[in-house]
Automatic annotation (TrEMBL):
It comes from Rudanella paleaurantiibacter. Pathway: Metabolic intermediate biosynthesis; chorismate biosynthesis; chorismate from D-erythrose 4-phosphate and phosphoenolpyruvate: step 3/7. The keyword Repeat does not apply. This is 3-dehydroquinate dehydratase. Belongs to the type-II 3-dehydroquinase family. It holds the Pfam family DHquinase_II. Gene3D superfamilies: Dehydroquinase, class II (3.40.50.9100).
Length: 140
């Protein structure tokens, strides 16, 4: 059975409440049930934190034993060399996901420290981006 880690960074615990015109009105926990139903043959481990070090710890914990990582590091995408280094250090391939189209937003969101460490990047497709990332990693 394939194992995929889904990591969400800061403020993504507020999905469903936070700026629904950008992020939609569905919570991630509700959406996670949809992903799990679509991939019953995949063990999906989900973790969300507003703390950079906790995200790095999860990458270290699962990055050598899991088959892939789906990561939406939130604002840490644009600031965290440490998360990028953690992704480089492990063997599991990663796919970066962003719910909104970061390239259509503020200029500081246009740069990602993570993208170069990932197999691919999915932006602007809403929560569906997570499903696409899991599908890719399962077929990898």
């Amino acid at each position: 059975m394939k194992k995929i880690l889904i990591l969400n960074g800061p403020n993504l615990n507020l999905l469903g409440k936070r700026e629904p015109h950008i992020y939609g009105s569905r919570t991630f926990i509700d959406y996670l049930k949809t992903i799990e139903a679509q991939f019953p043959e995949v063990q999906i481990h989900y973790f969300q934190s507003n703390h950079e070090g906790e995200l790095i710890d999860k990458i270290h914990e699962h990055g050598f034993t899991f088959d892939g990582i789906v990561i939406n590091a939130g604002a840490y995408t644009h600031t965290s060399i440490a998360i990028a280094d953690a992704l480089s250090a492990v063997t599991a391939p990663a796919v970066e996901v962003h719910i909104s189209n970061v390239h259509a937003r503020e200029a500081f969101r246009h740069h990602s420290y993570l993208s170069a460490k990932c197999k691919g990047v999915i932006v602007g497709l809403g929560l569906t981006g997570y499903e696409l990332a899991v599908r890719y990693l399962v077929q990898e």
